[in-house]
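Quick illustration, no need to memorize.
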Amino acid sequence: MKIENKGKEYKSKSHIIYSCQYHIIFCPKYRRKVLVNGIDERLKELILEKQKDYDYEVLEMEVMNDHVHLLLDINPTIGVCEVVKKIKRYTSKTLREEFPSLKSRIPTLWTLSKFISTVGSVSLETVKKYIEEQKNV
């Protein structure tokens, strides 16, 4: 069987071929504006650093001072909630160790909440454009 959709990249692993993109948004506890002064850039580095370990690919990313937008391609055998949980756990632990001021501002870095939407009802390019435009808001 040949799967073909121009403009869509498919990944393959053992026994699976997939293309699963998700728009994900999450924010710090109490929506505090703490993702500033180098914390935002370090957060981006940490998220990029774990792509292979957690089996996702960052297609687009924007860190605002009080929330994070990610466009990720995630292996469906792992699941989007599990990947987001791992990202939040790792980044919280690392950022709170590297930036002690975070410990005094909030009891934990991230809320338990998250927004997750599959990319399908709108084009991948539309979501990428939306995330890119967030830094101008």
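The chain has one domain: 17-136.
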